[in-house]
Write a structure and sequence with these properties.
heterodimer, A: about 475 residues, mainly alpha, globular, B: about 350 residues, alpha/beta, 5 strands
Chain lengths: ~475, ~350
């Protein structure tokens, strides 16, 4: 179910009034939210509800076992079982095809006749042990929407419980609600148990401000998705569908447009998610904070997909040692974290290279950013443009279907002639307007006050509503990050 | 990854922020925006009607290219109800598929009447299921009028035409006119989200108005798609497109062979069910409805096909009689006056008009 479709509006029109009625009774509220969340997720493919339920149930039980364990070793065992199950499901559904293809290609190169079987054969073989006919159930491995998000959210709970930084959740229904909370279930923000679970433990208060802020967040997110991201996708998809037929200007503009498309798409989703949660009285974390005005790559990652960046920082970078054991180890840890973050996004070499590029960029610029010259002499705008250019360049690898295609785009950008890109003027105006707004909003107080003026804010809201109502096309296009 | 020391650990600074932009209104301001939105939704189409010049002259018919512009159709039907004595409603047979504006059924009826009394409310491709939606949602301004409703039995000539068979490679025309949830139409497949959107469009004129803007000013495309094809252009109203779609030659010269259609059973026909609904809606609104059945090109039918046609025809006429609905069964036209199975050529329309005029006594 997509936030920007009529189905969701009908769904929410049913869920919300009932929620308002039952929210004073915590058990009923959680039960209702869980039912709503499972309906929301099952709308796409009800079969995968079993997976959502299964991973949640394992984590819930493992934490209960942890609590009853007397020795640290046993606690660790339960944690490992939880992690193995989460990574196992994630690995099977998301990475098994990629791993099998690459291992088989390697075996072929080595002249071996051995081949790994198609991953779909594993569950069928297992079922065959119980007498089911071969290939009776699964014909291909379909990536469950948002699996990386809900498994990471669930894992954060078991890790935090193991560390003793949160209390064990005793209510199974509440835990299921925490993992499946529909506003942020399929594309984040990846909430921590320490933030969301306490909110589920009491009756949320919903103030006028919550309603107003929720509406504001939802409208901005809706506009980002329907009016901007889906619009830019038209040009991006056209060019990236056949990059060999486009010249440098079109490829540059399509890449630029993709950078904004993915930002509008993903941040639009989380804005809507936060808006929906807010009108229900829940406060979800900020996930994007104007990343394209970042002045360094570190700053960029502090502004882009904040819930994932902080997840990796807390559960990977720090456990690896963080910046505590010398420069070399710090860079190693940074590098590993960035590469794994790339792989988190998708099972393809393009995502690995994307992660590597960011890792290399981060390592190289960290020292540069520490110099007095860079800090004090380089104008902020130059820094922002440098970061933006680098990030945009790396999006080529994120968007391309293969390394070959990415390389084709890069080479054609530098080697082909400058011809008319036929880039819609309206697209350019919209991108520049948003960029200008972000600069104004994050700049000095004088200009910030300008965009904070009531007439300006009202005008923006009216513009967005009119644009959505009249100009934007109806959309049922899924969010890019659903595939992760 | 952000630059933070291990000591900091937490991530309070981003999560503490509620907004990353200034677009934040108070409850009172949202209330104002709500009223403004309601005003926009209810008022914009009416204001646009005042601003947009629309003066349909004699023999006007909705341009083929604007065949999906139901807001324009609704506007024209209201205007026609004010100006004309009788409105002729139907599919491309009424519209005049193979003929010019001055050669349609309405044109010849007006000639016989000696003035502008008949309005052409034909719309290309409106099979009965679509026609029922068109009448229900976009012709509600037509009340207490004389209405001639054309019944084209071609739409019941096979399970496919009768919408009983789904073919992914053959999407239906006018999906936005169809009943979205009930009765179910096997040939029409659409996701629930889009069905809900269509139902809203059918009931909220603002939505069909925005579609009108796209149809009339953006080459029947949504604005984003249009800008992709015209990256540096400004939209403009393109005026009325030409109206003859096919060469006006007879079916025999076209080389069409006789057919034995796989007529559906009248009792189970979806299209017939929708046609009955269309007639009932018009009647319920106080209109004096006259239903014209055919004339179908019986010359194009094999003996077997003709038997199926007659069975369907008999059933239709029997139902009309039972309901007490006024109806006409024009005689079959000469073979050379048909362009295909159901569309007459200009001479055919003239003959048909004479037949209707003589029988209606007006």
């Amino acid at each position: 179910m997509l936030f920007h479709t009529w189905v969701f509006f009908v769904f929410f029109a049913i869920v919300y009034p009932v929620y308002l009625l039952v929210r004073r009774d915590n058990r009923l509220m959680n039960l209702w939210l869980m039912i709503a969340s499972y309906t929301f997720y099952g709308w796409w493919n009800p079969n995968y509800l079993l997976l959502l339920f299964g991973t949640s149930a394992i984590d819930y039980v493992m934490v209960l076992f942890m609590e009853r364990s007397r020795s640290q070793r046993t606690r660790k065992l339960w944690l490992i079982i939880s992690l193995v199950s989460n990574f196992g499901f994630l690995g099977y559904f998301k990475y098994s095809g990629f791993i099998t293809d690459n291992v088989n290609a390697l075996l072929y190169q080595l002249g071996s006749s051995l081949r790994l079987p198609d991953p779909v054969s594993y569950p069928n073989t297992m079922l065959g042990l119980f007498g089911a006919p071969p290939e009776a159930f699964f014909t291909k491995v379909v990536l469950p929407i948002g699996i990386s998000f809900h498994t990471f959210q669930s894992m954060s709970y078991t890790i935090d419980a193991y560390r003793g930084t949160i209390q064990t959740e005793r209510s199974f229904i509440r835990f299921l609600t925490f993992v499946s909370f529909f506003p942020q279930l399929v594309a984040g923000p990846i909430e921590r148990a320490s933030n969301l679970l306490p909110q589920l433990q009491k009756a949320p208060t919903i103030s006028r401000h919550d309603l107003a802020d929720g509406l504001s967040l939802f409208l901005v997110g809706f506009f980002k998705k329907v009016a901007l991201a889906d619009y830019l996708a038209l040009y991006v998809d056209k060019v990236y569908a056949d990059p060999a037929h486009f010249q440098a200007p079109a490829l540059i503009l399509a890449t630029l447009a993709f950078g904004w498309q993915i930002y509008f798409d993903f941040s639009g989703y989380t804005d809507m998610a936060r808006g929906i949660a807010r009108v229900m009285g829940f406060h979800l974390m900020l996930n994007f904070n104007n990343p394209y005005i970042a002045t360094g790559l570190g700053d960029f990652w502090a502004r882009w997909h904040i819930s994932l960046s902080t997840w990796f920082k807390d559960y990977l970078y720090y456990p690896l040692g963080g910046n505590r054991h010398g420069t070399l180890n710090t860079y190693r840890n940074m590098f590993l974290t960035m590469v794994i973050s790339g792989i988190w996004h998708g099972a393809a070499w393009t995502f690995v290279i994307w992660g590597v590029l960011h890792a290399v960029g981060r390592v190289l610029t960290r020292e540069l950013e520490r110099t007095a010259f860079y800090r004090e002499r380089v104008p902020t705008l130059v820094k922002q443009l440098l970061v933006f250019t680098f990030v945009t360049f790396t999006w080529i690898f994120f968007r391309a279907q293969s390394l070959h295609e990415a390389w084709l785009v890069v080479s054609r950008i530098f080697l082909t002639a400058w011809t008319d890109p036929r880039f819609p003027l309206l697209m350019l105006v919209l991108i520049l307007a948003v960029w200008l707004y972000e600069f104004l909003y994050t700049s000095a107080q004088v200009t910030r006050r300008l965009v904070d003026l009531v007439p300006v804010r009202l005008a923006l809201v009216i513009f967005m509503i009119v644009y959505l109502a009249i100009v934007a096309q109806p959309s049922t296009k899924a969010f890019i990050y659903f595939q992760f | 990854m952000s630059e933070q020391t291990n000591d900091a650990r937490g991530h309070a600074e981003p999560s503490a922020l509620a907004f990353s932009n200034g677009v934040r209104l108070s409850g009172r301001q949202w209330l104002g925006i709500g009223f403004l939105t309601i005003a926009l939704v209810t008022g914009a189409p009416a204001l646009w009607r005042q601003a947009e010049r629309f003066e349909p002259g004699p023999d006007y018919r909705i341009p083929y290219e604007l065949g999906n512009d139901y807001w324009l159709y609704a506007r024209y039907s209201r205007l026609a109800a004010e100006r004309y004595d009788t409105l002729v409603v139907g599919d491309s047979v009424v519209w005049g598929e193979y003929v010019r504006r001055g050669q349609t059924l309405c044109h010849y009826l007006n000639e016989l009447a000696g003035g502008e009394r008949f309005a052409n409310l034909g719309l290309d491709g409106t099979y009965p299921a679509a026609l029922a939606g068109l009448i229900e949602h976009y012709v509600d301004g037509v009340r207490d009028k004389n209405v001639i409703l054309h019944c084209n039995l071609l739409w019941m000539s096979s399970p496919r035409e009768d919408l009983q068979v789904y073919r992914p490679d053959q999407p239906v025309n006018h999906p936005r006119l169809l009943a979205q949830f009930w009765p179910q139409i096997p040939r029409y497949q659409e996701i629930v989200a889009n069905r809900i959107g269509i139902v809203i469009e059918q009931h909220v004129p603002f939505c069909s108005w925005t579609n009108h803007l796209q149809q009339a000013y953006f080459d029947q495309k949504d604005v984003p798609s249009w800008t992709l094809e015209h990256p540096y252009d400004v939209p403009a109203f393109h005026g009325l497109p030409p109206t003859v779609r096919y060469e006006p030659i007879s079916w025999t010269r076209r080389g069409i062979e006789k057919k034995d259609y796989d007529w559906v059973e009248p009792e189970t026909s979806l299209q017939w069910r929708f046609f009955r609904h269309a007639a009932e809606v018009l009647k319920r609104r106080g209109n004096h409805v006259t239903i014209v059945v055919g004339p179908f090109n019986e010359h194009m039918l094999t003996a077997e096909g003709l038997r199926g046609y007659q069975r369907m025809h008999t059933h239709v006429v029997a139902w009309l009689e039972k309901q007490g609905l006024r109806h006409l069964e024009p005689a079959v036209l000469p073979s050379e006056e048909y362009a295909d199975a159901s569309h007459p050529l200009a001479t055919g329309y003239a003959r048909l008009a004479r037949g209707i005029w003589s029988r209606t006594g007006r």
